[in-house]
Design goal:
The chain is of the alpha/beta class and 263 residues long. The protein has a single domain, classed as NAD(P)-binding Rossmann-like Domain (Rossmann fold, 3-Layer(aba) Sandwich). It has 8 helices and 7 strands, in the order E-H-E-H-E-H-E-H-E-H-E-H-H-H-E. The chain has a 7-stranded parallel sheet with strand order 3-2-1-4-5-6-7, sandwiched between helices.
Amino acid sequence: MTTLAGKTLFITGASRGIGLAIALRAARDGANIVIAAKSGVPNPKLPGTIHTAAAEIEAAGGKALALQVDIREEDQVRDAVAKAVERFGGIDICVNNASAIWLAGTEGTPGPITEQTAESYAGTFDTNVLGVLLSMKHELRVMQAQGSGSIVNLSSTMGHRGAPGASLYTASKHAVEGLTKSAALEGAAFGIRVNAVAPGPVETAMAKAVHTPEIRADYHDAIPLNRYGLEEELAEAIFFLCSDRASYITGQILVVDGGLAMR
């Protein structure tokens, strides 16, 4: 059976939600986990910090290194990757999970195109696109020197369709999928695989905080499986792409959305 025991996973945005779920899944396999996220102090609206996540990871059997990082700042990304290599000797797997969430308005502002601004564009694209670009830039440098590695980026079902009121978020996830395919072509010669997972609605703390009963009812009707995905289900999909079981898969977007994209 494929295992991640002894391998090092570098993951952005892993203090909670899908990121923490994949970190815990890998920790149970005996992996070393590097958490790179902004949440160094508690948020009254959302549970979890890099420190509480590190404690959970170690309780699950993994070794954890918690780093407070803003992925929009290249010097912070570069330093985080270097610290991961210094601590664990290399990086085998990267999951670029940190993202601005359009309904939450965590960066950028949802709304029609006619009301968007350059500031809103930057708020969304700096995290969702620039952050992924900078992360892969420094991750790939390490993996190229190693001659191996696997990267999984987090896209969305909106990465291959449109959505009224979510133009910037949708465009940013289209960009993530383009970056993923380009990086896969560049990394192949070095034995590096690059893929993405495109989730539909997932039952995270963020979703519980920002999805109104009306939004939840609409998704329930639209998703053929008639429910939100679970964090653990996304973690298993990402774990598969990270692992040697997906050794001949690169440049692909794995949609995990209960059938929503078919509608």
